[in-house]
Amino acid sequence: MRRMGIIECARRHASETYHGGEPLIFATPPWSLYALRCALGKTPAVCFKISLLLAAVLFFAKLTGLVVFAANVLAVSLLNGSRIIAPISSMLAMWSASGIVAVLFLAFWKSHGLLPADGSELAVT
Fold first, then answer.
1. For residues 95 and 74, what is the distance between their CA atoms, to the nearest angstrom?
2. What residues does each domain of the chain span?
3. What is the pLDDT of residue 96?
4. Are 15 and 52 in contact (CB under 8 A)?
5. What's the average model confidence in pLDDT over 76-103?
6. Torsion 84-89-90-94 (CA) sign
7. Alpha carbon distance 32, 51 (integer Å)
8. Contact 104, 97 (CB under 8 A)
9. Taking the alpha carbons of 114, 116, 117, 118 in that order, is the dihedral positive or negative?
10. Looking at residue 4, what is its pLDDT?
11. What are the backbone angles phi and psi of residue 102, rounded to the nearest 5°?
């Protein structure tokens, strides 16, 4: 009986506190900004991989994470441009990863249109 009460409380609590992923999108951008700044000091291949990984993490945290990723890339680039900290090749690798993320977003998400699936096709989201 006690177990069923705990399960019921947990189920009710989870449905009453839907937050839409906002805590995730508030938690991940500072770490992604820090990781991008650290990635600029690495080789271009490592910087490229870290940038793709961060874009994926922010995307899965919430779709708005891609906007945050673009803002982080722009901020790191402007910061690096004013104080030439990292090699230009690492910055180009970060920007190329950003371009790949943008193309993947357009190809796999935006190309499905604004309307939800009507049931005649398979909707993978």
1. 9
2. 23-107
3. 92
4. no
5. 81
6. positive
7. 9
8. no
9. negative
10. 45
11. -65, -40
Rounded to 10 degrees, the C-alpha dihedral 66/71/75/77 comes to 60
Determine how many CB atoms are found less than 10 A away from the CB of residue 28.
20
Encoded amino acid at 9, one letter: C
Q: How far is CA 54 from CA 42, 81, 97, in A?
A: 15, 21, 10
Whether the CA torsion 105, 67, 61, 8 is positive or negative: it is negative
Residue 33 confidence (pLDDT) = 87
The residue type of 105 is: F
Q: Which helix (H) or strand (E) holds 53?
A: helix 44-61
Q: For position 46, what pLDDT does the model report?
A: 92
Residue 4 token pair: 């069923």
What backbone phi and psi angles, to 5 degrees, belong to 93? -65, -40
pLDDT digits (tens, 9 = 90+) for 13-65: 555 665 666 777 777 888 888 888 888 888 889 999 999 999 988 888 877 88
CA gap 33, 75 in Å, rounded: 8
| pTM for the model | 0.68
Phi, psi (deg, nearest 5) at residue 38: -70, -30
